[in-house]
Amino acid sequence: MDVKDSNGNLLDDGDTVLLIKDLKVKGSSLNLKRGTSVKNIRLTNKEGEVECKIGKAKIVLKTCFLKKA
Question: How distant, in Å, are the alpha carbons of 38, 42, 44, 50, 58 from that of 53?
Answer without folding.
Answer: 8, 9, 14, 10, 4
